[in-house]
């Protein structure tokens, strides 16, 4: 494109020069030309100022310093926006609600939650986003782009924050401490979410029902159940899911598909995570280490539950009384006492229990399943393989002599782990001390335990 601008068309040479420069830059953008090349990498830019800012990433130069704290910035604009955090200035107000923001972009993104606008669509699937950055990060899931590599192990991540948080697990750095207990965290947001367990604060409320949530993301996922937006319906039943992978995992319950096979044995799994956890049994890997003692764990759930024994954290509260629990299952079992629900029923007797473990201890036949076809001739136990069953039956012969003469005795006793027996069974019916590990519990005693 020829430049047809003439000096006499502008008031003075300075105006002409500026306009000529802007026109030249505009032409380069139109032609796709990028004439300014970074001296440290292969990136090119149409503006010299953009190139200069980019080069500061390589050099680490941050010439703009916040006047209220020690933070420094590559761009002056970013420094000015940061200083508003200190001054409390929030000049951009949402036109749909009372919220205000320090950044115009933050306000624009927030307003999209009211309008439902999601202008950025994934080029690989139908998912849409309110922010361009969220869309870019999501697309890396499809492309497999994991550009952020841990400097201590072989793991790689799509997000820089995820990589930074992971690296802290290697060096043991947990800079964020709960103000209500001794628990520490690698990420600030995790600490904030945890503190809401103590305060009971649930800032995010569903706009369609009365449910409230401590975490905004959980609220967003819940609202999709109401709107049907981005939800995935099981093709075999009426269940709906907000995450596609959860729906796929669920459908495998119907189909029986188990595509993930252990590389050390013949076991197969419907979920990759379950397969990974199982393989740790073979490798002995225990990646979750307690920060308060030397214990290590194969699964995150076991690690979290153990950690609560140190911190005293009890996040699950009974909805009928003030009692709190460290485990969700314990809370559920407790709440059944209030409602009178007893879902665990025996097959041979008309007994029901609110806690499954009590049912298993008292009536071991409830643990039988179609997957354990080999039944002990002397007690209620069942086994996957005949070899396991034969080995178990030898325990009876060792304890009671030849089992041919002890069959009637074996069928009328149960030898549960003494630690799992409810406290009310510790005393026998006549008031004497109850059975010990070497003195099995008669079934007759068990049958009256919960009456």
Oligomer: single chain
Rg over CA atoms: 32 Å
Class of one domain, according to the CATH hierarchy?
Answer: Alpha Beta
User: How many extended strands?
Assistant: 28
Sheet with the most strands, sense and barrel status: 2 strands, antiparallel
Given as residue ranges, the uncertain stretches (5+ residues, pLDDT < 50) are 1-29, 360-370, 398-451
Strand content: 5-15%
Counting helices, strands and paired strands, the structural category is alpha+beta
Task: Please render the helix and strand layout as text.
Blueprint: H1 13-31, E1 36-37, E2 44-45, H2 48-59, E3 64-65, E4 72-73, H3 76-87, E5 92-93, E6 100-101, H4 104-115, E7 120-121, E8 128-129, H5 132-143, E9 148-149, E10 156-157, H6 160-171, E11 176-177, E12 184-185, H7 188-199, E13 204-205, E14 212-213, H8 216-227, E15 232-233, E16 240-241, H9 244-255, E17 260-261, E18 268-269, H10 272-283, E19 288-289, E20 296-297, H11 300-311, E21 316-317, E22 324-325, H12 328-339, E23 344-345, E24 352-353, H13 356-362, E25 374-375, E26 382-383, H14 386-400, H15 407-411, E27 413-414, E28 441-442, H16 443-447
Antiparallel strand pairs: 1-2, 3-4, 5-6, 7-8, 9-10, 11-12, 13-14, 15-16, 17-18, 19-20, 21-22, 23-24, 25-26, 27-28
Q: How would you describe the overall organization of this protein?
A:
This protein is of the alpha+beta class and 451 residues long. It has a domain at 36-118: Classic Zinc Finger (Double Stranded RNA Binding Domain). Helices cover 41% and strands 12% of the residues. The protein is built from 16 helices and 28 strands. The strands form 14 sheets. The chain has a two-stranded antiparallel sheet. Strands 3-4 form a two-stranded antiparallel sheet. The longest helix is centred in the first third of the chain and has 19 residues, at 13-31. The relative contact order is 0.03. The model is unreliable at 1-29, 360-370 and 398-451 (pLDDT under 50).
